[in-house]
Structures are given as structure tokens and as C-alpha cells.
Write a structure and sequence with these properties.
- The chain is α+β, with helices and mostly antiparallel strands and 290 residues long.
- The protein has 10 helices and 12 strands.
- It has 3 domains: 164 residues, Sandwich (Jelly Rolls); 48 residues; 56 residues, Arc Repressor Mutant, subunit A.
- Helix content is 41%, strand content 28%.
Length: 290
């Protein structure tokens, strides 16, 4: 969470992930001896308490003013506006939290500067289910090093930023660029052709948005409007279709089919199969050929 953690803190592990204009620091920490946290950053910071154990005491200050005097509950968030000084003291046992940092310029990138946002509102211990689950998804996605996870991370990061600014920012709307984000029939055909011809390779959001000649955030809106799902959802669906066909119509081993379908490993494909079809690739092959 912090720039100045107390030396009393023990058993602390951190994981960092970053995207354009954003960074997530997820932490698991034992605070049984008491800990002090501090944030003083040029970016907006959103602290999300994700549980893991029990917090028995919490005192926070923002710009020298006392704010919270009760332990954090799972799903609660604190917003620290850019250039504000945040400090807190906490005690409990094992806790898990995430801090999502956003550059002030992020919202302009997301909506092509068609919405102007001023300050973001400071918050202290407010429950926000969307924010909590979005940060959870980001943490989970960063545990995997594959293109689908990267696409999911980008989509979730964009949705989280828009949610935070829409819900807690002070906005002055112009004509939103989201209303002009469209893929025409030719654009959709080109997108399908590219994805299908590169389905076994790494596919990045940056390359897809360049192909559409859009910013990545405008492209995400346009793609969902055109296909009814995110790029990550569409690509995983097409990879599963390719894998199903190969399982049913070839004698190749499952690991080879996984790689040729664009999955990073046998286990990656098996996990996707169980999630989407409630069966393993082996079970699918057996049932199809029986």
C-alpha cells in the first residue's frame, strides 16, 4: 500500500502489475505487531480491502484530518486523490489489500478527451462491490502469463477506471467518444479474419486496436458493440472451437492440440474446457468418438 511501511510489519508479500497510466500493488501482510501505512503520490490511489484475515483496529488520516476509526471490512475502499497525503495505523492478523494507482490523464485516454474530469472525491471505508471484484480479477489475471489474461487485464483495468471516475469523479461531459466507437461490416470481417488466422499465436489488444485504427479503449467499446463480447471472450471461444474440432477429428495428443489452438499449456486448455463445458478435453474426445 505504502511508501513508508513500519519496520514492525512482518511476513509481507507484494505483487505489482502495470498498464498504461495505471498500476496495481496487491499485498498480503501480517499486521499483528501493528503497522503504519502512507501514500503521497501524484496519482489517484484507490485502496481496496480484500480480507484474508481480521483487522482489529484502523485509524486513517487524509491531509492531516482524521477519517476512519473502525477496522476495514472486506469490499470497502478508500480513495486518496492525487497529491494528497494519506497515513494510517492498523493492527490485526493476516490481511490482504490492493492499491490501484491511476494517472490523472487516464480518463482522457479512455474517452478520447470527450469528457473532462476535475477532482476525484476522497472516500473513507465505502463498500464498492464493482471495485472489489474488478481488483480481484486483476490480481487473478496477473498470476497468468498468457495473452487472454493480458486482454482480460486491459479490459478490467479500463472498466475499473471508468467506474471510479463516473462514480466518484466530478465530470463535465461533452459528446462522449463512446457514441462514435463502431466497427463497420468490413472492420468486423477484417477482425475475424485476423483472429482466426492468428489463433495459435499471441494476440494483443494493442495489435487489434492498431488494426482497427482506434485507441485501445475506444476499440474495446467498439468490439463489444460489434461482437457482443470482449476480445478476450471472443478469442477464448474461438480457441475452444478449434480445440474441439481437433479433438474430434484428429488423433493428435492433447498437449499438441492445446498449443495449436493458442493455449499456453495442456493445463490452460483443460481449465478453459472445464469452465466452459464442465468436462475435460479427454472426456470431450471420449464422448465424441464413443
Amino acid at each position: 500500500m505504502s511508501k513508508n511501511d513500519s519496520p514492525k510489519a512482518i511476513n509481507k508479500t507484494e505483487r505489482n502489475a502495470s498498464w498504461s497510466g495505471c498500476e496495481l500493488v496487491s499485498t498480503k501482510e501480517n499486521i499483528s505487531s501493528g503497522v503504519e501505512w502512507a501514500i503521497n503520490d501524484s496519482r489517484h490511489a484507490v485502496i481496496v480491502h480484500m480480507g484474508g484475515g481480521t483487522m482489529t483496529a484502523l485509524e486513517t488520516e487524509l491531509d492531516g484530518q482524521g477519517m476512519s476509526f473502525a477496522p476495514a471490512n472486506v469490499g470497502e475502499i478508500w480513495i486518496v486523490p492525487a497529491n494528497s497525503r494519506y497515513a494510517s495505523r492498523a493492527q490485526g492478523n493476516d490481511v490482504e489489500y490492493g492499491v490501484f494507482f491511476m494517472d490523472s490523464s487516464v480518463i482522457g485516454d479512455l474517452v478520447s478527451n470527450d469528457v473532462e474530469f476535475g477532482e476525484i472525491t476522497p472516500l473513507h471505508g465505502v463498500r464498492d462491490e464493482f471495485c472489489y471484484h474488478a481488483v480481484r480479477k486483476l490480481v487473478d489475471a496477473t498470476e497468468h502469463n498468457d495473452d487472454i489474461s493480458a486482454l482480460l487485464s486491459e479490459s478490467t483495468r479500463s472498466a475499473l477506471c471508468l467506474h471510479l471516475f463516473q462514480t466518484y469523479g466530478q465530470a463535465s461531459e461533452k459528446s462522449s467518444a463512446r457514441n462514435h466507437a463502431f466497427l463497420d461490416k468490413v472492420g468486423m470481417q477484417d477482425m475475424r479474419a485476423y483472429i482466426h488466422s492468428h489463433i495459435s499465436q499471441t494476440i494483443t489488444l494493442a495489435h487489434l486496436s492498431n488494426l482497427a485504427e482506434m485507441s485501445t479503449n475506444t476499440f474495446l467499446v467498439a468490439f463489444r458493440r460489434a461482437f457482443g463480447q470482449t476480445p478476450a471472450q471472443y478469442i477464448i471461444e474461438q480457441r475452444l472451437r478449434r480445440a474441439q474440432w481437433m479433438l474430434a477429428n484428429s488423433n493428435k495428443d492433447i498437449t499438441s492440440i492445446a498449443f495449436e489452438s493458442g493455449f499456453s499449456s495442456h493445463s490452460h486448455m483443460s481449465s478453459a474446457f472445464r469452465k466452459h463445458f464442465n468436462q475435460t478435453p479427454s472426456d470431450f474426445r471420449t464422448s465424441w468418438k464413443s
